Structures are given as structure tokens and as C-alpha cells.
Amino acid sequence: MENNTVITINNLVKRFPVGGEFFTALKDIDLTLNKGEFTGLVGPSGSGKTTLLNIIGGLDSPSEGQVSVLGQALNDTSHGERALLRREHMGFIFQSYNLLPVYTVFENVELPLILNKVGLKEREERVAQAMEWVGLSNKTDSRPAMLSGGECQRTAIARAIVHQPALVLADEPTANLDAENSHHIMKIMLQLNHELSTSFIFATHDEKIMAYLKRIIHLDDGQITEDEKIENPKASA
Amino acid sequence: MLFKIALKNLLGARLRTFLNVLVTAFSFFLILFMSAMYNGMLEHAKQVTMDTEIAGGAYWHPEYDPLDPMTFEDAHSALPRDVQLLVDQKKAFPVLVSQASIYPGGRIMPAIMKGIPPGQNIVNMPTDALSGHDDIAIPVLIGKGMASDTKLNVGDAFTIRWLDTDRTYDADEGTVVHIMDTENFKLDMSHIWIPLKKAQTMLAMEGEATYVTYEKGLPPVQDKGDWIPRDINYLVQDMEAIIAADKPGAQVMYMILLALAAMGIFNAQVLSIFRRGREIGTLMAIGMTRPRVVGLFTLEGGLNAVLAAVATLIFFGPVLWYFGVYGIPLPIDYTEMGMIVAKRLIPVYTIGLVVSTTILVSIIVLIVSYLPSRRIARMKPTDALRGKAVA
């Protein structure tokens, strides 16, 4: 990783085949994100937020352009190398939580550590710490079906940060939550951003989230229309 | 790591896992049980044949072919020296075989007349019933099947006609002295047993025999002349062939049972991959590689087989044990159908049977788990996260 740069994107274009044609989801994206940024990709539905997030996460590949994440050029990496990058240095938070229903909260949070082959004792300590960060220490044995939406999303956050990744990608993390839970979730993530220096990137069109962001990248029709840096976010003050 | 996750997934899916495991365990049980029944039939038939007919093996006159009665006429001679020695030491007994015609109730019936020493105790036949009948011209021992066919009872007399060594027909009156209840139809159907000395006198073949049966555990003799040694394996092969004729039917049944178990697991795996698309996407997003996800789903299927084996042991083990100890009473008497089948059949579970059945079921379960899981390798993580499965 060079300097503090976490993500570097140059001339990114993403096209999807639709029928016999190609639909261009992202056009000429140039972007640099630094360590510890709390950034939002903001725009209406279909503006390319999730596609950009997926490409940054190595879940999708660009049609053109260069994408470098945590010092690794994703264009030159295999599926396996991208999986390793995600496993060790990234966390994902999804709109619909994507918790594994047959696992308890503890087991869901533990999963990235198991994949990273962390020993049992250390796993228990780190899961307990992550549960404490998100305020779910009393729910470790519950299954996702027994939790509220806010609790599920907090579990998902714990899972995303339990291995202390450099980068957390969150796709509409508050879309299924009420206002109170949305604020709670954002406060937790902001706190983790401060304490762990973890970079967060949100794909969102939720006004409540925007109040916490330190940088807002506006997307429209697959292009960056505005890159706004906010010195003193309203909600974090 | 994969094992732990697979086990968690499997146990967490409770009802789905329970039903899959139950279907597999039931198929496992039936395959094991039917194979053991087949083994039991084979073992029983062999045992009965050895106990009542073969003992340790036999020496045959070179002309003797038990399946060709026309050879009986010439299949007799004095015993080779060492074979005679065995007989003298009571380690073997001779049998003289001849064609005969009997006339029970005025009807003519072809029969195989065998002379056997009444005092032999090498095979389990009630031949001692033939001794001590000086007042009877020809004491005759027959089986229940023969008695039923001829409508003869103990004490009934009937005419026996035979061809002696001088090719002269002769006849005399035989009297049934005993009716034996034997599972070995080969001693029963169309057979009449008379004392050896009497047979030798009737046929003018003094000191001669057609074959000699010896007791178990004897080494081959040196001087057997041109007589042919027949060991147990040779002598039971016709019995094995009769039972083996039943094997294709049993194998079709195994295939159906295995197919049932395989379809259940295949169906569950396909459904899993379609229904658990989002889970697959999540696993990929948090860093699990595609081959590992494929491995995870295959392992889940494989663990089904292991759980099925455990479930078989727990749920069906007592049933298998009960039948293994007490057997299963059969409603019909197979003796008349030309088969040696016990009236109470006891399944025989060998280690080989259990291991081979377990391996077979496990391999099939692994294959049907792996085949649908391969689709995951073609799945895009972004599609999987949207819950979109591959076609």
C-alpha cells in the first residue's frame, strides 16, 4: 500500500450485456480514497453505486480502466487472490444483513476469523470485543431470526470489523432500518472509524447517513458528478 | 475449517437434514438388511449342504455325473486303496448310486436309489433308521418332499425295480422305515436311500461305490486311483449358482434404494444451491474461494452419509440385531421349489458387507453432492448476493 492510499481508480468503465447490447453502468470513474476516510457513494437508484462498490470489493471486474485496492491491482488478480484480499483486509455490510440463518450471532461474527484461521482462544476474545463494540454482548447465542433489524445489522457490522480490516464496504446499510436504528448504526461505524482507523465506503441514498459522512461522492448515470469533502459532518459533531 | 462450517450448516438446518438423513439411513438399512439376508441364505444353504451331504468333500468315480443319471450305470467300482483306508477308519463312507423305478400306489416313478452305510455319522442324515430291519426286504429312507410326492408313509410298501451290473432288471418290495425332515432338497426329491450292503447285493456290485464322502479337515489322499477329488467349493457351486440366480433381482432392488437415497440428497443439494444463493454470495464476499464453497457444499452432502450411518446404527441397529439373532420366519417351504432356504432365515452381517455398503453409499452420496455443487463455481458473487442462482 502506497502512502495512505486505500483505493485508486483510473478511467473505470463497467458495461453489462443486456440482450444484444451493452449497458454502461460506470463511465470514466477516477477516484482516490485514503486511509480512515468515511465516504459515501451517493446517488439515485441505477446510478452505479453498488456496481462501483462491488468492483472495489473485487466481487465484480471492470470492463476498462485500472482499479487498485490496498496496493493490489485488481485487474491482474485471480478470483482466489481477490478472495484472499477480501478475507484479510475487507469487511462487507449488506442492506439485508446477509447473516447465515443457521448460525448464532457469535458464530456469524466468528466466521471471518475461522476463514482467516485464527485460533480458538483469540477468536473468542475478538468476537467478544466486536460484540461489545456493537452492543450485542447479551445476544451471542441468539439466531438471526430472533433479532430485530437493528440487531441484525449490528451483528453484520461486528462480522465486518471483527478481523479489523483496512476497508469496510457497506451497501445501503440503513435501508431496512428505522431512523433510530439508522443513527445508532452510523454512530457505531463512526466510532470504529475513529478507533480502528478503518476506511468506510457506503453506497447510499439515505439522507440520515449523509449527515455522518466526511466525504460524499455523487454519482449519476454512472458518472461522478461531484466529490464533496465535509470538514465537520453535522451528525458526528 | 470446512468440516466445522459444514457440520454447523447441516445441524443448523434441522428438519431438512433430518429428512435427508432419514431417507439415506432407511436406504442404507434396507441395502444392508437385504444383502445380509442374501448372505444368510447363501451361508445357510452352504452349511446345510455341508452338514447333510458334503461334509469335508468327496471322491467321485470318474464316470459319475450327478446331473446325468445315464452315467450312473457305469459309475461304480471298488474303492482306491487310500480311499478304502479312510472308509475303514470310519473317516469316510461310500455311496452307491443307481437309477431305479418305483411303483407307489401303482404309479411308476423314476427315482435315484442310493445305498448308504446306516452307521455313518459323517453327514447329518438319519441313516441309522435303516439298520435293524432284517424282516424287511428293502428298508427305505425318504424325505418329506418325496413322501408327499409319492403319498408314502412310514410302513408303506412299494415295488422297486432296478438294473443290475449284468444289465438285468430285477424288482423287490421296499418299505418306508423313516421319513426324514431335511432342508436339503437334493437328499429328498426323487431319492430313495437304502442300506449300502443291500444296494451292493441288489446291483451285484459287492464292495463297490459311486462316490465316497469324507469328514471335514482331512488332507487329500495319495492313492485315489482315477477317482476325482471334489472339494467343498466345487460341491457347493451348484447351490451358489441357484442362489446367485436370485442376485440380479436383489441388485435391481439395491439400485432402486440407492437411487432413492441419491435422489433425495441430489434434490436437497440442488435446492440448497438455489435457495442458499445469498449465503453463497456472502461466503464469497467475506473471502471464501469458489473451490472452498464447492467443497463446503460437497462436504455437507458427504456428512449426510456419515450422519445416515450413525442414524442407521441408532434407529435401525436394534432391528438388524434382532433379526440377526432371532431370524425371520419364512411363510413358505422353499424345499419343494428346489432351494435350500431355512424356515427361519438369519441374516449374516459380515464386516466386508458393512464396510462395502458404507463405502458404496458414501461414494454415491458424495457424487450426488458434488455434481450440483459444481454450479457454484460458475456463479458470479454479485449474482449470488442478489440471491440469483445459476441456471
Automatic annotation (TrEMBL), chain A:
Coiled coil stretches, renumbered: none
GO molecular function, one term: ATP binding
Residues in ABC transporter domain copies: 7-237
CDD domains attached to this UniProt entry: ABC_MJ0796_LolCDE_FtsE
Keywords annotated in UniProt: ATP-binding, Nucleotide-binding, Transport
Pfam families on file: ABC_tran
One GO cellular component term noted in the UniProt record for this chain: plasma membrane
Signal peptide start-end: none
Name recorded for this polypeptide: ABC transporter domain-containing protein
Organism annotation: marine metagenome
